[in-house]
Every structure is written in structure tokens, then in C-alpha cells.
């Protein structure tokens, strides 16, 4: 285990004393203690819960060893000088490290250092003030199992012994503490009246909104975390599957055109809206409740800490009005309407019929959004409206432009693992409104038309960027963002690809907001229960600053860009910039390394396979990827790609950004696609693709409240021969841009430039970089198994690699 | 989905009326309703929670379709005759089946039948009494997601609206309902003083015992479910790993002996016990509490239903005294001491020092045990003492004799997947007492001696049944069992093999107790959240009968032996007997089918491999198993086994019990082992080995209480060529029995008889049965890669197959 904590706020003796008093470790009695050992014993007695007897607490303390000779009770009862080593012997055991297995008695300080756990700057032996400061820091230090000791203690029932005795909210070291009784949460449903009528029934769409909030919010308003999740009222998986497109189709020649961006961006006339409902009455009493919601565990964590949590699934979902649109402005309005209600700027009703208004009187008007993937996407969507009340977005693995999710440079390009999915499929999957049989039957025909429109407008035929995709490109409005933005993205995310986070990151760069980003080594995952990083603490610090207006230095403490190292496990570091395209190094693609024959400075590859091999690759993308990169001369794919391998690296090199591919190439047909991968070649141990559970440890998000599984990436047990760093694809007819189609003549050479996905990736000394050029991507592109030959002119082809400056 | 419910108790109109009154669906107001539609509407209004407004409830009802034309609200408000089809249209939607996807309106009755959901015997149109009976039955019918509708409704908050308004306990259709507020559970720790001193410190061992019980138990005693889990105070995985034995060792010649069973069973002198502690005081107030326990979700289910749940890990675990022994009588006493305390027959203290006694005043004295694997094993252990208070055991995948867990017929034989594990490894793993540093250091040397003794006594050298194993054979005392016994075992359990359940089943056969058994198609798993079987309801019915003394006909309703079919999914059926060895059919092993050469009526096979192939099989047991059965002539293993394939079956045949192997065989050395597998050969779809989650559905075990993931076995997507039905192994020197060693001369022929694991297995027409004879089992036996040749005399070798009578 290697600990990385960024969210420990600076403190001094005064702060430590005040805050320890607020959480009842210090009081008038302790002011009288004049011996450091006695004070530490008092802390331990308090730690083991006032609700337990003195005998039990003594029993607990005497299970801990303070030195080779003495258990902690014996040691402290001597009232002899308290050594720093003894303190940290005890500390490590409280932090759940086991003597013998994890560390040896009297090796505690070295061990703290090795584990990267903070050590208080104190005298040895320790004085009274040292004990206070060291104890304060210890409570803010992560245990072996990925939470601060005070959070662990809360899970043991420290605050729950008597919730009523603690301030609410209770801020400790800049973070809000779990002092709210999660057994007493209020759960209610309202219907927000949104300014749209997407099912065209002459009435504004009502959006079912689920609220969970502490009872205390009845008296004192609280901040709100809102998760807009189109999934959380259920999904229609069978419908989605039925609609999934066949991808075993050939590429076709496209009619050249001169479409311009302004053609695509033409504003459409806004439809006239129906009148708002007449408010017939006003109440504070909700009429509907709900049972177990589909929750995000990070929201659960905040529910114990004085935040309300709101879920709303938006138009076309169960018990809401309207139809799904997969990312257009009406889905944005689904999110902003709820935020407006939470900020006091929009009407909601207690049910669908009686027009009885209910206000979010319990909201302090400060709203954050949270969630991953589509849930993160709707955060970007909402933020780009500049909606009032939205203060902070925790955007995880989100789409910034739907074209970058389902398309690439004029090609249909699936999210990794979801071949054949498209905007229409997702709309059908999330149209949970149909789970109500009456709603389904009433709206069947209208919905069918809506879905057909999406299918047509998404245009799988061309793959071009068009008006449909432009309406789903949030980057267009990025400058309107007013909320602070915290982006989290997996550098190995093949579902929502990293270009999405890079683009929005650069789009918000000029804005005067707080901007943070974490780039981890995961795929499309959450990272709020990892052993090596205090992500949850950082979010607490940041939200507490943004929504509770607590001055806790969050913006300084949290690095602007934090990256997880790919070459070692449990390693995180801050960087100054990401994907700035500054230090490009050009490598000519001069000589293939895979035996491809070069004639007249040209090299060719095919794109067709025997039917059997084709089918094998279709059904096993891993096999395809493996053969693509390291399949020998007998791999079926051997004639279908060209590999260029560069010199063995003499020192570690870090790639930061997008690799640019410059090819002069021809197709034997009047259509064609080109793909490229940048590869890290070299037998080595690498991080596994999936995080694993750590010792089956559970994180308690409160006291007997919800929990999470602690996870971490482990290094592979066996060496692997390579790892893909990045990939990219282009339709040769979209060589100018994604919206405009250029002509393509068979066997004519064209200059084709395209970028691979951005990454931050350390290539180790002794490894080699390689570039693979090919056409069909079995995992993501359409797959026609067409008889096409591609030729690269090696005298005019190169890659530019974004090496880190150093 | 195919539903199997055994736990629906018989009822009539009177019962239905009374019980619906008790759960507030009927009351004085409803007595006045004279229209069937109006009554059903009332039921639906009540179903959608009194805590929600009338408008919301109307909204909910109007989402349901009652007929092609009308939603349920419109339909029922007409007060027209209520058709049976309309009732079941509504019913299926309440049961969470979706119109369109799962069924079509007006096809409801056929659909109910197809899904094997019970239909009330009512008139059409329905009268008032019909509505009452049908609604009552519906509440007891399983939803799409594996729980009764009343349990689903409880999860929606039906009882939680006002817990105080319901009787406690509340029995509905013979089962106890979740009317206990799980937010108000009492959690306390006591230390039971057990009659033993396993760490030899001159004091009786104290056993930490964790109690969770409803607050109501303070006033009215409740029954107790006790889970004795050596794992639930933590485990020392690293220690276990370190101790794991090398299995790449050769078999050796054993010195013949004439050991008898009575030599092995000699009673040892009981050590004198230290005096019990003096009771210094008495209290009802516990001093220690605990936070999130390691729970079994079935126990969680019962916590909402008026049962207390008790966990105790036993000697040598964290915060208890003593040392682990892996299954001897002291671990049995660890369990019985707690039961005795729960039944008022033993002393417990509030802490380890003050001798302050605390009674289980909240226990009604009726104790059941639950848990799987080691947790089930300790149930058999406790039951075989006949301890007073223990009324019922829910024994899942348990060991009935530890020899059948770690040994077989004179061979070291690992639990599948745990090569090198043994009694000492398990003892080290579960010795969580050492997680307390002070306890670890204090007891280090004594514990080392104890562990060394286990290592010596378990005797991996011989593999024979000896005094060590005899002390760990609960079958010896099976006749003392007084508790009712419910066994659950996976027919594919290679960890705790099915011989364990078969032996205990037959051992309790003559006893005058209630005996039930479920044999499922899983490996070493729990089955309390399966879609196709109402297992949890059955346990509720059974426990409510045994521990709450409710007359609910549990023993008649629950089949004595219930088996899950292996040939189809979601299929369960009752059988009359298991493994009775009655209808044996003999097949001569006359002609190998795998090309093995026969000379002079003899066939030989080797047991050695190239080093590379040996290592490959060592690291991939699946590859070995596959090659063993269907590896062609180029499989490395081709000379290392002989296969006998029988005629293609003309009709389905069911194996029920143990296959007997009769070989006349020689070894080329003065030692040898023989193994055999019975195989179902034939390309076909078969159940996957692991159950899968169903629609990601969660089962709510109460209201906002804990939850479980709904699972079910699915058929494989691809056909598989074979499935192992059973296997067995024997040391040729143990051909008489497991405790006595016979001589073995190289190249001499001996008659060797041994049994394969019992099974209930349907072999489909068109398939073939096959028997494979070999020596080393790469997954379970020691693996010496020794140059041994085995020869079978085919003129005197056969198998006897236990075909079902039919």
C-alpha cells in the first residue's frame, strides 16, 4: 500500500485544539491533564467509544502493543515520557496495520514513511501539544483500508453514539463529518415542470425527481448533490439489443460535398411552448415516497455528511413525461429544470394532477452534480447553460460531444465493447417511461416516430458530423460555464474516450472558474474507493468549499491535474499541463518492422480475410488486437497491417497528449478508412486492466449505512508483451474535417492527417514505441471484410509524438 | 423465468380474511364494500401505501393496464364485473412483469401458468370472496425477481409506514413478516465461558459472541439464529498461504500395518478443567458493541422478521481465548457453549475481567444454526452433541467428516481449487486471535507448538484415516442428533464434496427428527437469492415452525429431497431417495475407446509427462481435465489414461448415487494410486458452472435494510462436449479401507474397489456415458510426475452405475 492524501488541510495547534474540542476529544476535563501519556490514554479511551464500558475500553487498549515489552495500556499508565516511536507503534495499529504482518514494533516511523503516511513534526519524547497535534493529524490520516481514521471511527459508531451532541454541519480539517443520522433521512418525490413539451401533448413535461435529505434540513437548509441519471428508473435492455445495428457492413463511397460548419449550426425555430400549469395551492408536504434508489456510493457518503441528494432521470423515463433524445438540449433542460427548482427558480408539484406547488425550501440553493458516463455528460450539458445555482460539477468519464462517442473523422466508431450501439439504441434503452404499461400504450406511435427520426438523423450511412451531432456538442457552449469543474477520466477508457475530457478541459481553460482534473489508469470506472488515493476526501474538501462556503483552501490543496502512473502501482503525481501539443517529436514512417514488403518506397496492406478468420476476429476482439500487434508471419492479419517500430528507448519517456499521424496513402477503391495505434512494446509487468478488491475490505460510508468495496489496480502477475497507448481512425473522404466529404479516387494518393486519442503514458527505458497502420477496427468500426488494398507512400509519412518536456 | 414455490401454506377464505386483516388490507371499512372491483381497488390503494396521497396512489394504479382499453383505475372505477383475466393482467404487472416484453394483455392467465405462478381457483367474473382469496394468494406469489409480493411490498415500505401498528411477530401464510424496525436493532457483545482451556492458561476459554436483536426482544423473548463462523473476526490469509503444502511430491510405499478402527477410536483421558470464574455480579446491560458485522444475508432477512442473530467465531479467534484446532471437539464446544448460554444453561460475562454475568434474557431458548461450509460443519458438530436448545440446523455445503474434506482412501486429496491446503493451513488462517498484537506476542510460542502438532497429526505422509481424523468425524456421533436438520449441498461442489452430505443424510435417516435436503447444481455457493426457487420462504416456514412453534405444516410442504435438474434451467423436482445403492447396473470395462492398446486382455497407462506438459497441467487444471476426457491422440496425456465409452443412450437416464469402480490392477512400483471419472459425453448445452445475476435485480431483505443480488444458473451459450459427473481416487495400499495399509508388490495384480462421489444427474438420450481411469489428479492429488506404469486387467474390471429406478 502506498498512500496519497491531498485533502489534508493545513493546521496549527490552535486549529487542532478547537477542532478536537468540537469532536469531543478535548474538553474541560482534558485541559487538566498534564502528562502526555495520560492525554494519549484519554484519546484512546475516547476513541474506543464512550458508549462502551471502561473495562472494555481498557481491554481494547491493552490489545495494542506500544513497545516490545508493553501493551499500550501498561505503557501509558506508567506516565513515563511518551516516545514518538511508541506513538506511531500505536498509530499504525489504529490504522489497521498488523504487527508482524505489516510492520514490526519500533519500526513504526520508517513504516509510516514507506507507506507515505504523514508524520507529525513533534519532539521526542512528545509533549502535551505534540500529542494534540499528532493525534489530530492521525485522525486525518488514511487507514490501511482507504479512509481517514476519523471516517473509520465514524463507521465504528463514534458520532452515532449520540448524533445530537455534535454541531451540524461539523467541519473537521476542512471536510464535513458524518454527524447526520442516516436512519432518519427524508425520502420524497416531486414533479418539476420543465420548459418543454417533448411528447407534444400540449402540456409542459413533468420530471419525476427523487429527494433524499437529512431530517435537519427541515430547519436549516443544506447544499444539494444532484445526479441526473437516465438509467436510474430502469432500462429497456431487450429493446436496446433489438435495435443494435449490424456492423458487418462495407464502407461505401460518399458523394463529395461542400457542407460548412455554419450550414450545420443553423438555429432552428423554437417551438412554441404550452402554457405553464396554474398553481392551485402550495405545500411543504410531499405526497410520494420511494424505497431503495439506484445510488452512487459517493452520494451516499455525502448523505451522512449534511448534503441532500437528488436523483432525476429526465424526459422519457419512468413516471416522467416526454421522450428520450440522447443528448440534445431537451435532455439538458431535464437537468437544468431540476437545478432551477433546487435554486428556487422553477415550479414543482407534489403529484401529476393537482397542481399543488412544493418548494425546495430545505435547499440552500447551492447545487453540485455528480455521476459518471451519461450522468457526467448531463453535468457538462447543464453547466454549459450557465444555469444559476449550479456551483460545482464532479464530471466522471463524461462525453463532451456525442460525435466523439459514436463517430470519428467521418466514420461510425462504436464505444469500445458496444459494437452497433448508437444514439437511437441508447434512446430506446433509457426510455423507461414505457415500464408503465398505460404510458407505453398511449405513446407508442409517437415514440416510434421519434426513434425513427433519431435513427435517420444520426446517419450511420455517412458517419459525418452533421446538425444532429452539432446539437449534441456541448463544446459549442463551453464558454458559458459558470460552475467550478472537476473532471475525472480513465486514460484507458475505450467507452467514453479520453478526447472527450481533453476537449472540455481545453475549452474551460480560459474561464475564470476552479478547474481540476484526475486522469487515472482505469477504463470506464468510478475511483471513489481506491486504496492509494484520497479521492473522496478531495471531493469532500472541494464540495464543502463550493457548497458550504467553508474556507478550506481546497483549490490550492487539490492539484490542478493529477495523474496515476501507468508504470508502477499505487502511484499518483501532479502535472502542469495535459495535451498541449507543445513538444512534438517527428518520426518518419520509413521502414516497416513486420516484414511488409516495400517497393518503390511504398508499402501496401489488404483489408480482407478468410471468412473463418474474419469471424474469429469479429467474435474475439482481444485476439484481433493481439494478432494486430504481435501476431507473427502466420497470423491471419499479417498482410492487413504495417508496423513501424522505433529504437529501443535509452531512458524513460512520457507521452503527454495526442499522437499525430501523417500519411500519404491510397485506397484501391473509391472509399477507404485508415486506422493507427501507438504501442508500447516490451515484455514487462503492467497494471491489470481491472482494479481488484483489496483484502475484501469494505468502506463504511457512515454508521451502519451503505458501504463500498475497496479496490486498487495490481500489477500483472505475468509479463505482457505490449500495451496499446492510443488509437485513431479516419475516413479518407473526411481528410479535411468530419463534416465535409472530399472526393476519393481509387489508387490516387492523398495526404491524410489524423490524431490518436490523447494519453499520459510513461514508456520505460528498454521498451520500444511502435506504430501500427491498418484499416478495419474489429472492436469499434464497421467490418465489411472488403477487398481493398491500401498503400502508404513511405517517403512522405510520419508520426509526431507528444513527448513531455524534461 | 420458471417459478417453484413450495412454501405457500394451504389456506381458505377464513384464513385469508383473518390474515389480510392482520396486515391491514381488510378492516371494518372494507367489510362494507360490496363490489368486487371496488374491493380490488381498495387493495391496490392500500398496496400503494397509506403514507402516499390518494392522488399519487391513483396515479400508480392508472399506470397499470387492466384490459386492452382500460387502465386499472378506469376499469375498476366502472364497478363492472371483474374478469379473472383483468385480475391477472393487473397481478402480473404488480409482480413486475412488463406488458409487451414479458406478456401481452389478456394473455395473463396462460402466462401465469407458463411461469408456474399459482392461480386462485375463482369464478369468472370474480365475486367478493374470490377477490379476497386471489389477492391473498397473490401476496404470497413470487414476483419476477424472486420474492413474494408481500416481501416486495415490505421492501417498498408497507410495514415500515408504521411498524408499531402490526403484531409482533406477525405470521402471514405461515411465515414471519418483516415488521421489526431494522434501524433499531440492538448490537452487543458478551463473553461466553466455555468448558475448556485450549490455550492452557489455567482459565476457562472466553468466547466473544456478537448479538443483534430487535429492540422488542427486551420485552418479549425471541428465537435465535446462531452462525458459528471462524472467519468472521478476520483471517490470516498470508499465514495460510505461507503454510500451504507443496503438492509436487511423489507417492511413496507405505509400511503395511494392521491398525484397527478401535485402535484409532481409543478415548483419550480428558484433561482436568480449571475452575469456573466466580460470578461477581449480574446485569442485563452489555458493555461492548460492534459495528458492521460479516453477515449472511439470510440472517439479515430474519433480523427484520423477529429473530435475533448471533455470531461467534470460537476458540482462537479475535477477542476470544484459546487456539484453533480445525474441527475437533473443542471447536464443537465453541459452538455448543454459545447455544447453552442462549438456552440459559451457561454463564457469559460482559467483559473479560470483571466477572459480571449477563444472561440471554431476550432469547426464547429456541436456537437454530445457519451458514455454509465451515459454518455448516460446526452445525453438524454441535448437533451431534444433542445440545439442549438447538432446535434446527440449516446445514449448507458442510463437512460431515474432515477426512472426506482433506483425504480420500489413503490419499491426500485437496478440496478442489485449494491444492496444498490442510487442517494446519486452515487453523493458521482462522487464528484471528493474533490480530491483537498483545495476544499474538503472548501466545506465539504455544500456538506454534499447537500448529506443529496439527501438522504432524494430520499426517500428509500416509494419507491414512487415523486418530486425528477420527476425532474430526462427526458421523461417529450422528445418532445423538436431536435438532431438526435441513441440508443443502451443491452437486457440483468440489470443495466440500457431496459424499459429506450423503453420509450425514444416511446417518440421520433412522432418527426421529425432521430431515430435509436440497441438492442444487451449484458449486460451493449459497442459494438464498435464486429466481426459480423459494428457498428463503421455505427456511422461513421451517424456522417459524421449529423456533416460533407456529403450526404451518412446514414438514409436509417442504419436500424431503428436492433436486435441481442438471439438464434444463430453472427446474426443480422432488425425489424419494438419494444414494441408496439400490439399482446398480454393471458395465464391464472390456474395451478402451481411446485407442489404448490392449494386449492379453490388459491395458496399461503411464503416469509421467514431459516436464513442460507436467507444468502446464499443474498451472491449468481445466486444460488437464479437458485433455483427460477429450484430448486426442496428440494430447500429452494420451498415454496416461484409459477411456471406456458405453453405448449411446436411447432414452434419458438418471444416475442417483455413487458409481462403484472394480479394477484388477497393478503398479510397476511398490506404491500406486488409481483415479476414475464418470463422464457425460455429448455436444450439448449445459448449465453454466456459476450462477449469474438476473437483470441486476436486488432483493430487499426488509425496508431500506440489507439486500441481496438475485441470481440464477443459465444454460451455456455454446454447446460443450462433456461434463464430469463424478470422480474418485484410491491409494492401492488402502484397498481394504482408509485406515489400514496393505502391502503392494510391483507388477502384482490386486482387486481394487472404490466409489466415486455421489450425484443425481440426468444423462440425456443421445449422450454416452464414459469412464476414465488414470492416476494423478492435477487438481486435487499430490503430483510426483513419477515414472509409474499402471496395468488394468480387463477380464476382471467393471463399473456399477446407480441408475434411478423407473
UniProtKB/TrEMBL annotation, chains A, B:
Instruction: List, in alphabetical order, the Gene Ontology terms for molecular function in this entry.
Output: aminopeptidase activity; dipeptidyl-peptidase activity; serine-type peptidase activity
The regions listed as transmembrane in this protein's record are none
Q: What is its EC number?
A: 3.4.14.11
Question: Residue limits of the Xaa-Pro dipeptidyl-peptidase C-terminal domain?
Answer: 540-800
Extract the Pfam families matched here. Answer: Peptidase_S15, PepX_C, PepX_N
Identify the domain of life. Bacteria
Q: What class of enzyme is it?
A: hydrolase
- Catalysed transformations (reactions): Hydrolyzes Xaa-Pro-|- bonds to release unblocked, N-terminal dipeptides from substrates including Ala-Pro-|-p-nitroanilide and (sequentially) Tyr-Pro-|-Phe-Pro-|-Gly-Pro-|-Ile
The UniProt keywords, alphabetically, are:
Aminopeptidase, Hydrolase, Protease, Serine protease
The answer to whether the entry has keyword Signal is no
* GO aspect biological process, one term: proteolysis
Q: Does the keyword Hydrolase apply?
A: yes
Question: Any idea where the X-Prolyl dipeptidyl aminopeptidase PepX N-terminal domain is?
Answer: 1-158
Protein family according to the UniProt entry: Belongs to the peptidase S15 family.
Q: Which NCBIfam families match?
A: PRK05371.1-2
Q: What does this protein do?
A: Removes N-terminal dipeptides sequentially from polypeptides having unsubstituted N-termini provided that the penultimate residue is proline.
Q: How does it assemble?
A: Homodimer.
Q: What is this protein called?
A: Xaa-Pro dipeptidyl-peptidase
Biological source species: Apilactobacillus kunkeei
